[in-house]
Design a protein that fits this description.
about 80% helix; mainly alpha; about 0% strand; flat
Length: about 190
């Protein structure tokens, strides 16, 4: 962000916000008055690609961490497809909804918004809804930082869902089925060219 700010002639904090809103999907906290230079656009593309790679890595790592791997056992989703689907379609959304109610309310208090706008903003932020459910966005420095932290935390929510799905027996069966079919196909192709 600091490099981009220096190249574009922005304040360093504006460069941080510009990169943070790209990486997390938050904002818009900073919109340049003028068009971004070609170098700035190139930097934004590189930053976005790196952010995507880091997000995938974070999701993958968090999905195999102890909480994500012990949660399926706790919820009984490992050997029960019905419980797995219930966890994915009821438990996780209920927890996300409760978090959005609480944290959206806190953000609304900090920013002086009504509760509904805080809730909508946080749902859009957590679920990665690009267009947003509200035009409200944090104005204060603390609100912007909290929004960035909450957007990053949304990756953890995604990883819990990935961990739950990955631990379901039906997923293991599907992977095994695909691996067996690929091995048979590989053998047939090898025999064809032998």
């Amino acid at each position: 962000g600091a490099i981009l700010a220096a190249v574009e002639g922005w304040e360093t904090l504006d460069g941080f916000y510009f990169v943070a809103q790209d990486v997390t999907g938050t904002g818009p906290f900073f919109e340049p008055d003028d068009n971004i230079s070609t170098f700035g656009e190139f930097m934004e593309i590189i930053i976005s690609i790196i952010a995507l790679t880091l997000a995938a890595g974070i999701i993958g790592l968090a999905a195999i961490m102890s909480m994500s791997s012990s949660l399926p056992d706790l919820l009984g989703t490992v050997d029960s497809p019905a419980r797995g689907f219930a966890a994915i379609f009821f438990f996780v959304p209920a927890m996300v909804l409760l978090a959005c109610v609480f944290l959206g309310g806190v953000l609304a208090l900090l920013e002086g918004w009504d509760f509904l706008n805080g809730f909508k903003y946080l749902v859009a932020l957590t679920c990665g809804i690009g267009t947003g459910l509200t035009s409200t966005a944090p104005d204060s420095e603390s609100g912007k930082i909290i929004a960035i932290i909450l957007a990053t935390t949304a990756l953890g929510i995604t990883s819990v869902v990935v961990g739950l799905v990955g631990a379901m027996a039906i997923c293991g069966d599907a992977v095994y089925f695909i691996e067996v079919k690929l091995a048979v196909l590989e053998g047939a192709v090898a025999a064809l060219f032998a």
